[in-house]
């Protein structure tokens, strides 16, 4: 028994030490700025079709750095993403009834009765799912990413959405504090 418990504890230690390895962080930096990209877990219906990404831009220089603009490629508009996953109550009711009709013969029509009883509950839970997806979509991509001045050690955080298994491309244009020239950083 002691060996089994020891083995279980040892395996849990190994598993929990490996979890941070699965959280991929992409980094791009120069003498002035550092950009980090991490996966953001979505907690609503959006997670079925979209991935969340969180960016953190940090000023590493000892003077303010002026960001002219941040351009994102392959990112999804949060409102469009919400409308993509939103389900209508009539559509959910129809799916539920069709499932009951499909199993009507083998269940001697009991599945039709059960489907009719569950329709209001499914419509209500669908409404809650739509509201959660809308709230999460409203939190994503709300920042204006032009003409930002970052003080020393200051960070700029923002989130984006992409279609599953795609990665956004960020192009950050900023003024070099020494030469006043525009410079670009890319993070893929």
Commentary on this structure:
- The chain has 188 residues and is of the alpha+beta class.
- The protein has four helices and eight strands.
- The chain has helices at 2-22, 78-85, 89-102, 110-139; strands spanning 25-29, 33-40, 50-59, 65-73, 146-150, 155-163, 169-175, 182-187.
- A four-stranded antiparallel sheet has the order 1-2-3-6, with no helix packed on it. A four-stranded antiparallel sheet has the order 5-4-7-8, with no helix packed on it.
- Strand 1 (25-29) and strand 2 form a beta hairpin.
- The N and C termini lie far apart (50 Å).
- The mean pLDDT is 89.
Task: From the structure above, extract its key features.
188 residues, alpha+beta, four-stranded antiparallel beta sheet, 8 strands, 39% helix, flat
Query: Based on CA inertia axes, which overall geometry fits?
Result: flat
Category from helices, strands and their pairing? alpha+beta
Overall mean pLDDT stands at 89
Number of helices: 4
Listing every helix as H and every strand as E from the N terminus to the C terminus, the arrangement reads HEEEEHHHEEEE
Radius of gyration, in Å, reads 24 Å
Number of strands: 8
Q: What is the terminal separation in angstroms?
A: 50 Å
- How helix-rich are the residues, as a percent range? 25-40%
Low-confidence stretches: none
The biggest beta sheet reads: 4 strands, antiparallel
Main sheet: which strands, in order across?
Answer: 1-2-3-6
Task: Name the beta content range.
Answer: 25-35%
């Amino acid at each position: 028994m002691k060996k089994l418990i020891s083995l279980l504890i040892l395996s849990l230690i190994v598993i929990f030490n490996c979890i941070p390895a699965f959280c991929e962080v992409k980094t791009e930096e120069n003498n002035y700025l550092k950009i980090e990209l991490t996966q953001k877990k979505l907690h609503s219906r959006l997670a079925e079709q979209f991935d969340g990404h969180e960016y953190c831009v940090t000023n590493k220089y000892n003077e303010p750095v002026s960001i002219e603009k941040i351009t994102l490629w392959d990112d999804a508009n949060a409102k469009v993403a919400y409308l993509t996953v939103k389900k209508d109550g009539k559509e959910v009711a129809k799916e539920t009834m069709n499932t009951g009709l499909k199993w009507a013969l083998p269940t001697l029509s009991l599945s039709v009765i059960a489907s009719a009883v569950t329709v209001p509950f499914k419509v209500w839970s669908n409404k809650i799912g739509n509201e959660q997806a809308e709230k999460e979509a409203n939190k994503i991509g709300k920042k204006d990413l032009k003409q930002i001045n970052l003080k020393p050690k200051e960070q700029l955080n923002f989130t984006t959405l992409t279609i599953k298994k795609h990665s956004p491309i960020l192009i950050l244009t900023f003024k070099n504090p020494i030469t006043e020239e525009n410079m670009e950083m890319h993070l893929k």
